[in-house]
């Protein structure tokens, strides 16, 4: 009879022992946060409104594409922040079907380093319909909801005021001069689309912020915070990780067009702007500095503002997207430099990034260790002679990180 309480004691010991064992093994083995929920029928409990499944209902099907383009919807995209943790934001990628494996690599990097903990949406845009492989592969990799959109023809063709023979001759001349992408017609449509239209695509209309991702990029460090939230909370409108000088032959008359815009719209020019980043003589000439736009986190509402649209339309009517080969990088950068006050621009030092051929790798060793970075600091482009990042630090009175001189 006295064995009753004894057995009870053994039972309690066993239960405590088992609980301890589970606790220790769980904390010792690094488990992906959402593995349990992934196993649980792909249901996501980290955030309530996004469903990372391969079910076609989470992505816009080919048949729905046309409908989405003609009829902006108020539901899916904007609901991303319903959990309260997220900002109303999306990743965005312009790509061809043939880019699928290169964009797959980029998505995997972004997911592993950041988005697996946030499940932000991803919008894919294309001038042709996305094929099933592209949609299947990308939907399986993105932890948020994917959307696929076709670009309306009027955003990927010649406006009526463009002389197409003159444009063709310009391409031939640039090709003879071996100017990179100088002979390409599609590259010009791409640059014009990124400059003036992607943020007006119906799939983008319900979002406030975007993060642009290109094929074959690398993210070398953990992104241990939410950059979208940072942008919103700090009222930032445009951000970058790499900057450099533009190839002059692609933009000989761009600054003339910008000056025309500034003359016609003095009301749009921000006080306390970053003109000194763009010009060494108070605005007379362009020094060719620009933020590298294959990485961008920015405000869609700013790009949709009257200021930006008036700016884009002035440039577009001058024809340099076709008669020269204006890139969206200088076009966005000049806009950010003259239409926004300095404080609205941001350099994301913590986001280590590569797009062929340049690398941004944080100068600080402590930061690289804390963020589990895999980049070689010797590859960091920030302080090299062809980068404009030093100039950005100077005009904003920012202190350069210790050791930067050794990386120049
Ligand atoms: N749908 C579509 N996307 C395009 C086209 N041309 C380029 N893109 C996309 O537009 C973005 C920029 O094009 P890239 O070819 O990467 O241009 P780049 O970064 O200047 O040059 P690279 O050094 O080749 O990367 C990428 O996301 C491409 O996938 C096109 O004709 N159609
Ligand atoms: Mg690229």
TrEMBL record:
Keyword check for RNA-binding: no
Low complexity bias: start-end ranges: 46-61
Pfam families reported in the protein's UniProt record: Glyco_transf_15
UniProt keywords, alphabetically: Glycosyltransferase, Transferase
Gene Ontology CC, one term: Golgi apparatus
Any one GO MF annotation of this record: alpha-1,2-mannosyltransferase activity
Keyword hit for Nucleotide-binding: no
GO biological process: cell wall mannoprotein biosynthetic process; protein N-linked glycosylation; protein O-linked glycosylation
Span list, region Disordered: 46-83
Catalytic center residues: 296
Protein family membership: Belongs to the glycosyltransferase 15 family.
Entry protein name: Alpha 1,2-mannosyltransferase 2.4.1
Gene: KRE2
């Amino acid at each position: 009879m006295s064995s009753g309480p004894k057995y009870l004691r053994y039972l309690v010991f066993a239960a405590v022992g088992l609980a301890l064992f589970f606790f220790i093994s769980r904390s010792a083995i690094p488990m992906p946060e959402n593995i349990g929920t992934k196993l649980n029928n792909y249901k996501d409990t980290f955030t309530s409104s996004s469903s990372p499944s391969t079910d076609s209902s989470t992505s816009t099907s080919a048949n729905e594409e046309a409908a989405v383009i003609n009829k902006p919807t108020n539901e899916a995209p904007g609901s991303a922040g319903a959990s309260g943790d997220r900002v109303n934001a999306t990743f965005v990628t312009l790509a061809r079907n043939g880019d699928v494996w290169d964009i797959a690599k980029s998505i995997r990097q972004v997911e592993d380093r950041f988005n697996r903990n946030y499940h932000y949406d991803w919008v894919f845009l294309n001038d042709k319909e996305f094929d099933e492989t592209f949609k299947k592969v990308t939907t399986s990799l993105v932890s948020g909801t994917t959307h696929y959109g076709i670009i309306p023809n009027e955003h990927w063709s010649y406006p009526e005021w463009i002389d197409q023979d003159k444009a063709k001759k310009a391409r031939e001349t640039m090709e003879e001069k071996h100017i990179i992408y100088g002979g390409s017609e599609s590259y010009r449509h791409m640059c014009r689309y990124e400059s003036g239209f992607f943020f007006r695509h119906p799939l983008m209309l319900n979002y406030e912020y975007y993060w642009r991702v290109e094929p074959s990029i690398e993210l070398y460090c953990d992104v241990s915070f939410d950059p979208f939230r940072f942008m919103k909370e700090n009222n930032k409108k445009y951000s970058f990780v790499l900057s450099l000088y533009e190839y002059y032959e692609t933009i000989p008359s761009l600054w003339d067009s910008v000056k025309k815009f500034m003359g016609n719209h003095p009301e749009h020019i921000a006080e306390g702007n970053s003109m000194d980043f763009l010009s060494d003589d108070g605005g007379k000439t362009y020094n060719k500095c620009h933020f590298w736009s294959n990485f961008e986190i920015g405000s869609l509402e700013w790009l949709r503002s009257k200021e930006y649209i008036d700016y884009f339309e002035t440039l577009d009517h001058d024809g340099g997207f076709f008669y020269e080969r204006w890139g969206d990088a200088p076009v966005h950068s000049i806009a950010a430099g003259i239409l926004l006050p300095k404080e609205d621009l941001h350099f994301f030092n913590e986001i280590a990034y590569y797009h062929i051929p340049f690398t941004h790798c944080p100068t600080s060793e402590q930061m690289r260790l804390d963020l589990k970075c895999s980049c070689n600091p010797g590859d960091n482009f920030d302080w090299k002679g062809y980068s404009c990042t030093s100039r950005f630090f100077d005009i904003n009175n920012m202190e350069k990180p210790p050791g930067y001189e050794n990386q120049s």
